């Protein structure tokens, strides 16, 4: 099943052979590589851009660029999303710089469409390369690729000519792009129509946590002592952010990144479309996965998408902290945490954060700068882990248990300090329903800017008077 083309646009446009290139016969208008128009994906209407490799190798010349620019402008006028089905060999060499400048023209038009608050999605078919991939085809909100498709800036033959070596079989493919977080899904041809519908806000499947994960909330009682609350929050049998995302969300369209410790998706919660960012402390199998810079870049991408298309944001926090090692350091982990804080601060839609386990230091605070900050009553949030705090303050870890109390890390303590907006019970029957109701209430009542008012009020209370 594919899209239904309601009306094709600009079908009469034809190239004038601007370079008078030897041996080049400009194709007939019907044989051009790109066609555009108004299309239906089930009950979802969108502007369709189809780039066809079986027409002129899918190359982009003046006609393709003009059709695309006009289509994007019409999409803005009609307030419609754009769906791109792409198979391209890149720029059309026989049109020289006239072809090359279409990269800039289409990029400008794509930016204008995005700035109007409208979504765009693309499906990369084989091949998707060159100037098309390096311009409008990469400037979309969600990206899928066909299994085994050649996807890359330089096609394999160009890579071999430039570098002297053919790229390995593990490079320049849909699968390698997925591993690198450059596409959100690898989708067989027969499933692409459903994926596009879901990306446009239609029916989508639920989020399924990896096998072997907890299938229910933690049934144990919350201890009284902070040290044991933290130990319980860290336990490997306890659900993390991905499990809670699966329980709270009715559907899920993945925004894929290269760091498995952070997941993001376009979801529905109680019928409302929400952008969700979930930490996954179980991603590494040891219950202590720490987000790397790529995880924070994914979070920024998700929050900025929500801001642009007008969706609220829900973040689910559970991490011992950001990865501090040399590789993460050289990849800019501090800058990416700061960038995530800025993305949350700049978001023009309501934001809600729920700490479901451990909120570890600045790596957790990056997703906690929300208009509503909630905590499960068995969660903990701390300036730093008590073990590290003991090492800093006392040069050994022997004071960690006492520091767990001294640092006031429990949900009850942080509520008293005015640093969280609500504490949600996580034990007893109906826990998921209770948490869902709290999240929905927070999404409905959060006011943009509450994040700054809460932190300013708590800071004022912490200041000594004159």
From TrEMBL:
<keyword id="KW-0862">Zinc</keyword>
<keyword id="KW-0276">Fatty acid metabolism</keyword>
<keyword id="KW-0067">ATP-binding</keyword>
<comment type="similarity">
    <text>In the N-terminal section; belongs to the AccD/PCCB family.</text>
</comment>
<keyword id="KW-0547">Nucleotide-binding</keyword>
<comment type="pathway">
    <text>Lipid metabolism; malonyl-CoA biosynthesis; malonyl-CoA from acetyl-CoA: step 1/1.</text>
</comment>
<keyword id="KW-0444">Lipid biosynthesis</keyword>
<keyword id="KW-0479">Metal-binding</keyword>
<comment type="subunit">
    <text>Acetyl-CoA carboxylase is a heterotetramer composed of biotin carboxyl carrier protein (AccB), biotin carboxylase (AccC) and two subunits of ACCase subunit beta/alpha.</text>
</comment>
<feature type="domain" description="CoA carboxyltransferase N-terminal">
    <location>
        <begin position="1"/>
        <end position="218"/>
    </location>
</feature>
<dbReference type="InterPro" id="IPR001095">
    <property type="entry name" value="Acetyl_CoA_COase_a_su"/>
</dbReference>
<comment type="similarity">
    <text>In the C-terminal section; belongs to the AccA family.</text>
</comment>
<dbReference type="InterPro" id="IPR011762">
    <property type="entry name" value="COA_CT_N"/>
</dbReference>
<keyword id="KW-0963">Cytoplasm</keyword>
<feature type="domain" description="CoA carboxyltransferase C-terminal">
    <location>
        <begin position="216"/>
        <end position="445"/>
    </location>
</feature>
<keyword id="KW-0275">Fatty acid biosynthesis</keyword>
<dbReference type="InterPro" id="IPR000438">
    <property type="entry name" value="Acetyl_CoA_COase_Trfase_b_su"/>
</dbReference>
<keyword id="KW-0863">Zinc-finger</keyword>
<dbReference type="GO" id="GO:0016740">
    <property type="term" value="F:transferase activity"/>
</dbReference>
<comment type="function">
    <text>Component of the acetyl coenzyme A carboxylase (ACC) complex. Biotin carboxylase (BC) catalyzes the carboxylation of biotin on its carrier protein (BCCP) and then the CO(2) group is transferred by the transcarboxylase to acetyl-CoA to form malonyl-CoA.</text>
</comment>
<keyword id="KW-0808">Transferase</keyword>
<keyword id="KW-0443">Lipid metabolism</keyword>
<dbReference type="Pfam" id="PF03255">
    <property type="entry name" value="ACCA"/>
</dbReference>
<dbReference type="InterPro" id="IPR011763">
    <property type="entry name" value="COA_CT_C"/>
</dbReference>
<protein>
    <recommendedName>
        <fullName>Acetyl-coenzyme A carboxylase carboxyl transferase subunits beta/alpha</fullName>
        <ecNumber>2.1.3.15</ecNumber>
    </recommendedName>
</protein>
<dbReference type="InterPro" id="IPR029045">
    <property type="entry name" value="ClpP/crotonase-like_dom_sf"/>
</dbReference>
């Amino acid at each position: 099943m594919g899209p239904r083309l309601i009306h094709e646009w600009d079908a009469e446009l034809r190239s004038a052979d601007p370079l008078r290139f030897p041996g080049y016969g400009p194709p007939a208008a019907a044989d051009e590589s790109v066609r555009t128009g108004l299309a239906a994906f089930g009950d979802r209407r969108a502007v369709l851009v189809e780039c066809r490799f079986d027409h002129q190798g899918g190359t982009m010349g003046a006609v393709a660029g003009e059709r695309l620019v006009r289509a994007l402008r019409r999409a803005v006028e009609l307030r419609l999303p754009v769906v791109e089905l792409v198979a391209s060999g890149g720029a059309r060499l026989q049109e020289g710089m006239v072809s090359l400048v279409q990269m800039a023209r289409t990029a400008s038009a794509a930016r204008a469409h995005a700035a109007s608050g409208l979504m765009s999605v693309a499906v990369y078919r084989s091949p998707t390369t060159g100037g098309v991939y390096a311009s409008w085809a990469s400037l979309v909100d969600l990206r899928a690729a066909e299994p085994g498709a050649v996807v890359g800036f330089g096609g394999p033959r160009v890579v071999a000519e430039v570098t002297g070596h053919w790229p390995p079989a593990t490079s320049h493919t849909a699968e390698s792009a997925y591993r690198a977080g450059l596409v959100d899904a690898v989708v067989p041809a027969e499933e692409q129509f459903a994926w596009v519908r879901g990306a446009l806000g239609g029916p989508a499947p639920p989020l399924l946590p990896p096998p072997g994960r907890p299938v229910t909330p933690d049934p144990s009682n919350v201890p009284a002592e902070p040290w044991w609350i933290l130990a319980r929050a860290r336990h490997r049998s306890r659900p993390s952010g991905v499990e809670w995302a699966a329980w709270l969300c009715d559907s899920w369209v993945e925004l894929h990144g290269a760091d498995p410790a952070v997941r993001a998706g376009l979801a529905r919660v109680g019928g409302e479309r929400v952008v969700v960012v979930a930490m996954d402390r179980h991603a590494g199998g040891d219950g202590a996965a720490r987000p790397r810079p790529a995880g924070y870049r994914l979070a920024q991408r998700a929050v900025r998408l929500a801001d642009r298309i007008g969706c609220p944001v829900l973040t689910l926090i559970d991490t011992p902290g950001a990865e501090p090692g040399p590789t993460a350091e050289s990849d800019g982990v501090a800058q990416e945490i700061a960038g995530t804080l800025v993305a949350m601060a700049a978001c023009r839609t309501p934001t809600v954060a729920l700490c479901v386990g451990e909120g570890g230091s600045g790596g957790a605070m990056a997703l906690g700068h929300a208009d509503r900050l909630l905590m499960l009553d068995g969660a903990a949030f701390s300036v730093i882990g008590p073990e590290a705090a003991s090492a800093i303050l006392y040069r050994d870890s022997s004071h960690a248990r006492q520091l767990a109390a001294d640092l006031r890390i429990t949900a009850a303590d942080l509520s008293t300090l005015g640093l969280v907006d609500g504490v949600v019970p996580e034990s007893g029957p109906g826990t998921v329903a209770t948490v869902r109701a709290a999240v929905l209430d927070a999404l409905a009542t959060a006011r943009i800017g509450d994040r700054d008012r809460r932190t300013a009020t708590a800071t004022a209370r912490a200041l000594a008077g004159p």
